[in-house]
Amino acid sequence: MLAVGNDRQFGTLCQLLDAPQLASDPRFATNPQRVAHRASLRAALEPQLVRRPATEWAHQLTAARVPAGLVNDLAGAFALAASLGLEPIVELPRPDGQTVKLTRNPINLSATPPTYRSAPPALPAEPTPPAT
Question: Which residues partner with 2 through β-bridges?
Fold first, then answer.
């Protein structure tokens, strides 16, 4: 995902993509012009971006102060949060001795931190289908 919000970021993006001609194209010279010609800009950017994996682009662009990042599925989002030390999962014990993993509250207030008092009730067992 790219969030190029100003002309400096766009110029840097074009340099990193080895496509400096895009920054001087009158259709893309300013943010309003880029929005007006979005389809053409997208068609020009995509062939450049597919040359490398998204993770490489995200690291390189972020280092160059161009907002960029990966779009994660849920597993990827939880893995990213864990890698950042955000502890996205809380485990709560059940009366039967098992634990259940739940999403931790992302808001952590110092005076009133979230508490986790009990696990949700277990789902009822599915009935066994009758023999045929």
Answer: 68
Digit-by-digit pLDDT tens for the chain (132 residues) are 999 989 999 999 999 999 999 999 999 999 999 999 999 999 999 999 999 999 999 999 999 999 999 999 999 999 989 998 999 999 999 988 899 999 999 888 999 999 998 898 888 888 878 877
**Torsion of Cα atoms, 94 then 104 then 76 then 99, to 10°:** -10
Is 22 strand, coil or helix?
Answer: helix
Instruction: Please say whether the beta carbons of 101 and 90 come within 8 A.
Output: yes
Say if CB 41 and CB 34 are below 8 A apart: yes
Cα 27 to Cα 38: distance, rounded to the nearest angstrom: 9
Q: Based on the number of CB atoms within 10 Å of its own CB, is 19 exposed (0-12), middle (13-18) or buried (19 or more)? A: middle
- Containing 60, the helix (H) or strand (E) segment is helix 54-63
Residue with token string 């993993």? 101
Q: Six-digit token pair at 70?
A: 């990966």
